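Lecture 7 notes: from sequence to structure.

We start with a single chain of 529 residues. Read the sequence below before looking at the structure.
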Amino acid sequence: MSKDRLYLFDTTLRDGAQTAGIEFSLEDKIRITGLLEEIGVDYIEGGYPGANVVDDAFFAEPRTRHATFTAFGMTKRSGRSVGNDPGVQAVLGSAADAVCFVGKSSAYQVEVALGISPEDNLQNLVETVAAAVAAGKEVVVDCEHFFDGYKSDAAYTTRFVETALASGARWVVLCDTNGGTMPSEVEAIIGALPVDKARLGIHAHDDTGQAVANSLAALNAGVRHIQGTLNGLGERCGNANLVTLIPTLLLKPTFADRFETGVTREHLVELTRVSRAFDDLLNRASNRQAPYVGASAFATKAGIHASAIAKDPATYEHVPPESVGNERNVMVSQQAGRSNLLAALKRNGIVLEKDSPEIETLLWQVKERESRGYSYDGAEASFVLLARSVLGTLPEFFEVESYRASVERRHNARGQTVNVTEAVVKIVVDGERLMSVAEGNGPVNALDLALRKDLGKYQGQIEDLELVDFKVRILDGGTGAVTRVLVESRDGTGERWTTIGVSANIIDASFEALYESIAYKLLKAGVTA
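Now the structure, written as tokens:
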């Protein structure tokens, strides 16, 4: 029996960016897009062209390889034509393949928030969708306040959906904007709509903790398009969590037997790594008890549960942890993490047998380092260096003999207070001692410049290397706390990689990450010592 195709729409970069305390830079958006492509979503909504400088830059060129690159905007304002609406024109003029227009589908919201008539609102919708279709864009319409609007005036809200479909929208998405609708209500309301359900979508918020449940209820009612975010990011309590939805759709027979998505089993095994790498990018701790991907999702303490798992893991596991890239963690087991390690090694071109003694050594090293604050889910370049070091295949490109950074606060000739930062780095390359001095706008910047100033015979290999992101996270409290630093780098090929440093000294942690960034660049370039 053929399966229905279900489409997954990620709005992390737009709706997720409304999370309190979250601000995505251009580089953040580019990296998150790459993470999303690794798990096979169909649409990536990148933001709102015309709303800010970052989104304008992001939509200046195509950003996806497989997913449909999607821009967000609002239906045109009343009193002006589509051609004279700068918001609509910014969206239509972007490099996006698809556009998602939001319009108020609640008659009450139209009158209170927009101050226009319900009929004018429908006309604005018609003209906006028609303009996008004429521009060759695939059109998605988000029906804001759909469920609350339906409860207060079902006739108008239904007309809004019908009008969007008739105007040429590929998808019309029903939004639980306030996040208070129950799953039973979602299924009943969608079931009552007199339209082709296969062109409908669901956009659920998590204010009652039921965004995933509401999305699945909508799916049962006939929708074939689900919107959500990585790790449930979003304003207030967040959006439907795609990291929970995706494995449910692929691994639970009640859905897997009826639907297919663009996510393959190969995509699925990357889910845990992508989820944790995203948290690292946000500079926050991952939720240990997150379904499927949390560090505790498949953890069991010694006792009768552990005994049962040793006989048959299915006794206390609803899915195999390796299916989502996670690992079984029975506290007394020495096998925890082996499959993940092998997968990570294979991903980076290192193939070992599962009973290889080097695996046990590497596993111990990883666990020991994780206990000190390292996290390799979001710093795979550092993992590669560690693995090659354990295997004895990492060249010793250069030795850092010493480094020093100084910060001086003083008055300049004009009597102004200035900060002057200087770094000195001494390295040894092929027995030759090299010393470099550099000034920067801070100690880490100065060290970065000094370290890359003169690498002797390797200098030509790092000319295109640049640092694009630098994140610091305090792992425990106090001024003497352990600090984790993540450095993201890229080179002229466009490839990006992340390295990690951990120390009670923030400068030391930063230098470790900087050093490993250079070492990885030389390694991937095929340089030999």
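The chain has 19 helices and 18 strands. Keep this in mind for problem set 3.
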